Structures are given as C-alpha cells and as structure tokens.
Amino acid sequence: MESLSPRPVAEALAWLMPYISRYSTLPTGAYAHAVYNAKPAAGDPVRKHALEQMELLLADRASRLGYGRQQIETLGKQLRSRPVIQTGPHCHLIFEPDAFYTHIFSALGLRAHNDGWYVSYSVSNVKFRQGGKIGPGLLRLGDKIVNVFGLSRSKMDPYSICGRHSPKRFALTTSEKMTGADHLVEQLQRILPKGDFPSAADAIKTANQSLWRQFFASDLQLLQIDDMDVGELVAQHLRDPSSWLSSTLFGAGSFAKRVLAHLESFNRGQWRGWAKTTTDFFWHLSGGRIVPMRLSDGVFLNAEGSFSAPCAPAALVRSLNEGEIIPSLFLSFLVMSILPGLRALGGSRQIIYYPIMRNALLSTLSEFPAPANRSLAASLGSDEEPGMWGHRTISPDHAIDPFSLISQNGSSCFEQLIDCYGEMRLSEAWGRLPAFTGDPLWQTLCERLAKGRAFEDRPIWLAGAQHSVVPPQLDI
C-alpha cells in the first residue's frame, strides 16, 4: 500500500477533531496555547479521589528527584487548575526526534500559560527495537545509528525496556564504520549518567532529567513517569477499599468483563484495529518480557498458563508490588487521565483509540446505574476535549538529528527552536505528517472518507458536534 499524501490526512484530522480547522492556518504557538488550556473536571467524588491519587504519585516522584516542598505545591496547583499530561512519546532519550519535537510543542503550550511543570507519561512496556532502526534502544547521532545500551539483537528484540531482569548502562556502541560523527558519540557519552540501572527505562528517565536541565527549558521542571510508576498509582487506588477501582472495576460483579466486551466490540466494526484488547487490564512481566493476560472466572491468567492472579484488590496489589504485572494501556489511561480528568495529549493513533476507551467506559457505566456510576458518567460526559492531538504536531522534513543541532548551536538552540516553531503556521509545522501517511489504519480511514462512506460510530469523538461524512477542505 502506497503512502498517502498529507492533504487527505489533514482533512481527516479536521473531520475527527473540528478544532484543527480553526488552528491549521494559525501559528503553532496559538494551537499549543489551546491544547494546554484544559479545564478541571466537573465535581464528582470518584474523580476527586483519582486526582488526589495522581497528585500524591507525582509529588512523591518529584520529591525523589530533589524538588522542594514549595515547588511540589506549585505542581499540585498547576495540575488542579490546568490538568494536562503529555502521553505521546514512548520512553526515549530526550534527543530522539519523535520525542524531541513534541517536547518543543509542550514547552510552547506550558509557557503560554506561565506554567512551570512539564508532566509526561512515557510508555515503557515497549521493546528496545520497534522495527528497522528505531526504538528506545537505538539513537541516530549524525550519520550513524548508535546502540544505546550496547545490546545484541537477541537481547533487544524480545524484551521490554521496563524489564528489570538485568542491569543496564549507557554504552553507545555502533557496528558502523568510523565517521565524522564519532565526536557526537563521545560528547553524549560524557554527559550521560554513569553506572548500572535496574532497567533501561530507569536509565532513560534518569538521563532525561539531567539532559533537560543542561540543554532544555530551564524555567520548566520535567517530570516523566512510566509504566512502573503507573503501576504504583493503580496500587494506591487498590489499597483503598472504598476506591472506585476496588469497589467497582475490580470488585465483585462483572464490571471489568463488560468493559472488555465494549472495547472488543470496536474490533468487530468500522474501527477495527484502533483499540485492540491485546491484554486484559494487566501484562504479566517475567524475565524482561511482557505476556498478555486474560480475565477468566475471576482470575487473570497469562497466555502460557504459568502465572495467575485473582481479580481482587489485595492480590493485584501484591502482584504489582512484586513487579509481576504492569497495567495495560487502557488501565494506565484510566488512572492517570480519564478518572482524574487530565487532558491526554497524543499522537496519530491515540487521538482515535483514546475516545474509544472513554466510550467503552461510559457504555459500561450505563449498564451499572449505581449512584456513584451515574455521577461519574455525568462528569465524564461534560469533559471538554479530554484528548487532543499533541504529539508529532511538529514534524520537520530535515534529517539533522536533535543532538547534532544542540551540540552545534549550544544550549540556547532549544529556545530558538521554540520561538521558530511557535511562529510557524501549524499546517507548515506538521510537515508531511509522516506518522499518519504510512499508517495502514489511517490509509483505510482516509479511503472511506474519500468514498463518502458513513461512520456510524462518529459521535464517540465528535462530542455532539454535527459534521457531514465528507471531510472539510482545508486551506493548507
């Protein structure tokens, strides 16, 4: 299947997310301001509790990084007044282009509101290599691809970077011929933290904190969390017997199974493939590999049948504490975004699967009309743009890697790029939309729209807005 041209993708984006039409010809800074201009969720006890748990987790992680009480109080105030979390980039070193240009975009939005904390969730249950020469275990420096942790392919392909089966350290090795880019490798090696880390994800998070302070926005405090942190957030919920996760989602009854059924229903319809239920609420983590789990008769079982965990709060907390299980993508978004009311910023697939997740939850809540569920559903239904496009919104065509840019132009380079892209028209900043144009799911979606074929499930992301089946014609 040949790649799409950018225009049909841009028009499909505007059809799915009408706000794109308003901002495509405006400066990217104006769009970033709107993206970070989130409003607190409507009052509801379940969501208030979830926001409190999120604040506790972030405060703990900030404290571990050495931030003081006043700084952490500012973090809490920002989270309550403008609840936004960047959830697009995976757990990459900060100079990886897929992450780097998203950090520029987030810095634009945060500065527009004079906010001081940059909160980002980085998926860490991904493998070191994600096809070809990309992934958290690989990094382009100049004209060469560097092996970040010096691992052989057999030690990269089957394993997730969150696995703690063996310590990791930064190695920056390459099998390519020596070139003029070697000084970049040497320079980065000098500034990366030394020593062993429990996992590659821990190493990346630690390095990013140091690199951010040295090369990036000094007025923004970076706080990155990953799947192990979200596992602790889930455990916080489950330790409280009165929490919604304990009493409803994983309590007695069939709520959990009905959520899964609603999620799976999308895989049989027009949105097949967008929100696949690869695992049920948790992954089994063993020997550095993640294995899907299925919920059957009140028990989570891994695919091999070698591990099981009862679907009960106390048992799940034990397995989370012991690192045997980590949350699925749905459960992660539930506790860090959907329930606490944080606007989730995402990329090419998230802007579709995130509304599907919310729809599955709302559909299940309607089947269990207890007072707490009705209140929660009403609050969720009043959210304004709970998810927005905020990853890969800046996609430059040039091939210069970010570390080369920084090393050649100094620490002020990031500031200059913020100013440059902030003034650039959004439709120019998003370039040729490479993450969309080569994606088979987006190709199918655009073909359906081009043929004028109706999408019966359209209201799940249009939030009540009236739109025709035909996408708008953008002036791009």
Task: Kindly describe this structure.
With 476 residues, the protein is an alpha/beta fold. It folds into 2 domains: 1-26 and 432-476, no CATH class; 28-251 and 329-353 and 366-424, no CATH class. 46% of the residues lie in helices and 11% in strands. The chain has a 5-stranded antiparallel β-sheet. It has a 3-stranded parallel β-sheet with strand order 1-11-12, covered by helices on one side. Strands 2-5 form a two-stranded parallel sheet. Strand 3 and strand 4 form a beta hairpin.
In short:
With 476 residues, the protein is of the alpha/beta class. The chain has helices at residues 6-16, 19-23, 28-35, 45-64, 69-81, 97-112, 182-191, 200-215, 227-239, 244-249, 255-265, 313-321, 329-338, 350-367, 371-381, 402-409, 413-423, 426-429, 434-437, 440-450, 459-462, and strands spanning 84-86, 117-121, 138-141, 144-147, 221-225, 282-286, 289-296, 299-302, 308-310, 325-327, 343-346, 387-389.
